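Support case: user asked for a sample of complex input and structure output to validate their parser. Sending the pair below.
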Amino acid sequence: MTNWADKELWGWGRYPRVTARCARPERRREVEEALRDRGGEPVLAHGLGRSYGDAALVSGGRVLLTRRLDRLLEFDPETGWLRAEAGVSLEEVIRTFVPRGFFPPVVPGTQFVTLGGALACDIHGKNHHVDGTFADHVRRLELLTAKGEIVVCDADHEPELFWATVGGMGLTGVMLSMEVRLARIDNPYIEMESIRVENLDHFFDVSAESGGHTHTVSWIDCVARGPRMGRGIFMRGRHASSSAAPAGPGVGERLKAAAEPILDVPFDAPGWLLNNVTIRAFNEAYYRKQLKPRTNSVVHYEPFFFPLDFVRDWNRLYGPRGFLQYQLVVPPDPEHRAIRTVLEQITASGMGSFLAVIKEFGERVHGGLSFPAPGVTLALDFPNYGQPLFELLDRLDDVVAEAGGRVYLCKDARLKRAQFRRMYPAWEAWRAVRDAWDPDGVFQSELGRRLGLVPGSQP
Amino acid sequence: MSVLILGATSRIARELANRYAERGQAVFVAARDTDEAERIAADLRVRHGAQAVAGGFDATDFDGHAAFVDDVAAAVGPIDVAVVAFGDMGDGGDDVRRVIEVNFTGAASICEALAAHMAPRGTGCIIGISSVAGDRGRQSNYLYGSAKGGFTLYLQGLRNRLFKQGVHVMTVKLGFVDTRMTFGMETGIPIASPAQVSRAVVAAAERKVDAFYYPHFWRGIMTVIRAVPEKVFKRLSL
Ligand SMILES: Cc1cc2nc3c(=O)[nH]c(=O)nc-3n(C[C@H](O)[C@H](O)[C@H](O)COP(=O)(O)OP(=O)(O)OC[C@H]3O[C@@H](n4cnc5c(N)ncnc54)[C@H](O)[C@@H]3O)c2cc1C
Ligand SMILES: NC(=O)c1ccc[n+]([C@@H]2O[C@H](COP(=O)([O-])OP(=O)(O)OC[C@H]3O[C@@H](n4cnc5c(N)ncnc54)[C@H](OP(=O)(O)O)[C@@H]3O)[C@@H](O)[C@H]2O)c1
């Protein structure tokens, strides 16, 4: 018998919030049991809740909290292949394997995500232009489907189900385990170069000449206007070679020192904390940090990959109304018209973004609902200003869809269905595969209902 | 050094297995659910590079307990630390016998077998996971509480007996811990994580603590609860 408990859940943006009956399976068979014991209601897996909007939420449904399905099952130190349960976090993978000389092949901007969440959102990292997405390093997965069967899928067996689950936002079933190939590293350090970027054209110039770096990303001041529009700090780097790493205590000890977050936000900050003035001041100060046009350094992987993880629960700084992230990708365009229009609309609206990053993706695409596509991606955090913000984001959707781009579903809480269909033309093919495995819509989410991805969504 | 974890599918037990495995000790993880025990052993091997073996164990298979201890010793060597972590809170129905048999009879039975294994070697440590519920009978869980209370008393006597033979017995009285047992409960009182429990238990065992509460504040709470006169207590709904 499954033990269900009502819990209020939310994503990283803390908007929206939804109450659902939750179970927290600790064993494999408890996942199967919970699916059977769902009382006819829809089901959804929920990992570490680091998607920003409503992807991991379902009202009037059952949520399976996967965090305790966290066994590392097999590891081959010769090849780096790891077989692990879907609730394992990247933080655990890193803590366990960095001392042995391995790193996850792709990491997002936080290490507090589960393997299941990483594959369900087909996440990308700073190395997309070289290594593709997380799914490019996964060869097999075990999925519990709507009929209660455990299906092992890979390139040879049920490849369609495999690729529908990649980026499938939890709507094809519950992943139980997967095989992911870890990348070899010499040490926990990154050789990094920071470059002050004066404006958008400069960003694209630097980006174009950064192909030799495995990792690139740029912070961008999205308050700056006119000739300074797009100014920022471009960071590029690679895992350090043994000769570049600073000497000192062994790898294992240096890692321990970095394991726990240093700061905590124990309660909600008042809603006014992050406002136009503080956002402007922050962006200005951040830009001024980079005094020299170029600096080279060797840094630990944590500040490089996960600069925000050292403040646990930093999302509470946005206060009780929460915040929204908007991430878009638009195809390459020599004049960068869409990006310019987006930045202009944001500065004109007066609704600043506290943190914005920009990066050029590589060529690899996966179809279905997978987000990355060739072109440039821009991610912006906005305090939840309410209606005016939603109207601004609707206008940005127009610009993005018009340019042949799309927004990232795992960051989204408000995209409209018609726009979604323009952005993801492969959605129908994806939906056909999904429906074949789950005709009655056992797996549902708020996002899935809003975008019409599951049977029975309101027209 | 080898460590035996009984009831390894409990999250508290698994965290204890982690603590010992990360110290390089060989661990035998025993549970009724052998599939899961295998997965847990695999995890200990991958995560810590430890020697970890899984095996089946049923607390109510009293007659098999002595042979089980021999099997464990054959697999991972003489047992230095044994953790009795299994437990059964019951589901409030007609499970009187099961709750007593798992929490008390089964626990005592396996401890006797462990004592017989450790005493002749003059070394070893038995860690019994008991509960604050065993400190006073309350209407909400007195069946489980009485079995745990009996186990606490049993551990006291065993400690007294084995002390002279060089074997340490430690009683852990747990308050609320965030596990399957408590998932969804409105506790109203801070709840400990299984990892915190495991660190406290391993540290206490090293210092040869006889008995302790975890989280520590439960000691104060239970002192107060025990002090309430029965005349008053019987009228409360706790
Ligand atoms: C600070 C920060 C930085 C980020 N940076 C990046 C970035 O650089 N690149 C990037 O791509 N993303 C980024 N993200 C987004 C994050 O990587 C994804 O949202 C990821 O999916 C979160 O994993 P999770 O375990 O928290 O999943 P959740 O948020 O809990 O769930 C996300 C989705 O995965 C599904 N899911 C989870 N587990 C399973 C399972 N076992 N089986 C089936 N479906 C499942 C859920 O149903 C849901 O649809 C960032 C997020 C944060 C908070
Ligand atoms: N969580 C708390 O707040 C709390 C408080 C006080 C004390 N405790 C004690 O802490 C210990 C661990 O419990 P938990 O909280 O982690 O809950 P749990 O997950 O329910 O663990 C109890 C374990 O006991 C095992 N078990 C039950 N009957 C058994 C039998 N006949 N033979 C062998 N194993 C059996 C179960 O395994 P299988 O079902 O797979 O056999 C299960 O893994 C228990 O002794 C419990 O009484 C817990």
